[in-house]
Every structure is written in C-alpha cells, then in structure tokens.
Amino acid sequence: RPVMGRRLFFGESPNDDAVAVVIMPVRGGTEIAPATVTDPRCGPDIDMHAMARQVGTPLHACSAPAIEARIAELQCALRGLDALPCYAVKANGSLAVLRLMAEAGLGADIVSGGELRRALRAGIAPSRIVFSGVGKTADEIAQALDARILRFNVESLDELHTLQGVAAGLGVFM
Predict the structure, then answer these.
(1) How far apart are CA 61 and CA 74, in angstroms?
(2) DSSP assignment letter at 148
(3) pLDDT band for position 45 (50/70/90)?
(4) When comparing pLDDT for 53 and 40, which is higher?
(5) CA separation for the pair 40, 61 (Å, rounded)
(6) Do residues 51 and 21 touch, judged by C-beta distance below 8 A?
(7) I want to staple 133 with a disulfide (CB 3.0 to 4.6 A). Which of 70, 97, 100, 111 is the partner?
(8) What is the pLDDT of residues 21-36, one digit of tens each?
C-alpha cells in the first residue's frame, strides 16, 4: 500500500499491541519493513502522522540508516581489537532490526530461548551468539547447545551445574 509514495511491508512485531516499521532506503525511494522504535529521527521527509493514520497506533519507527551509522561508528572504534560486539536482543527484538545487526556482522546477546530463535531467524550466526542472564532453563540451555552458540555467561554455581548436566546429557563436551 502506498504511503507518501512509499511501500509498506507489514510483519510481526515483538509487541502484539503495536504495528512497527523500519524505514529503509532502497533504489528509487524508501521501503518500510517490520520493526520497533529505537530512533525517533526518521527524517524530515517522513510524515509520521500520515503513517499513523494509515497503519494505526501505536506506531513505532526507526531509521535503518541511523542504526547502520551507529554500527559503523562502533565498528570503527573497535577496529584492530579482538572484540565481538553483540547486540542485546532484549533491547529490540524486531526481526528487521536484528537483520541489520546480522548484515553488519554483529553478534547477539540473548537471555532466553525465544531471543535465540529470533536471532537465528534474523540470520545471526550461532557462532556469534552469547547467552547471558539469570534463570536459564535446562530446555533453553539445550536449545542453545544444539544451535552451537559461541558461549554462555554463567551467572551462578547452580547454573554452571545445570549447564554441565544438560551438556553431558546431550553428549556435548565443554
């Protein structure tokens, strides 16, 4: 559907109550893809009121070029270092935003099995995923081991024992 001379692509949002978009430049104009708000600076040529009238509210939008510029700044600052920048999926689990991270080669910092599935679905390589956070379940640990993620940040001795037990049960050497 055209909006201000642009096409809208609707998809899932991490929040069922919201329609969400990312404004992405394409040849001949701007394309809008599913996402959630991170950057209110969508540009002066974007009429947010018209978008809200067409797709409803709440409406969340962020600028793909602004996100890409921030990623480039981070990568420049880390150049020459042995570092893997990982995006905290809990900050914005939108597949469109996660795909921007994947395309830029960033990793993902996850805290749940759901975030693992979203990161993988967005194209983030398992070898670039770190599982952090407290309260990891044995099932989530098994999913992450099965996906062959990079590492776990263990938050307690009990969690370490759970990780070791799940890994042993799956025949995974740690």
Answers:
(1) 22
(2) T
(3) low
(4) 53
(5) 7
(6) yes
(7) 111
(8) 554 443 444 444 433 3
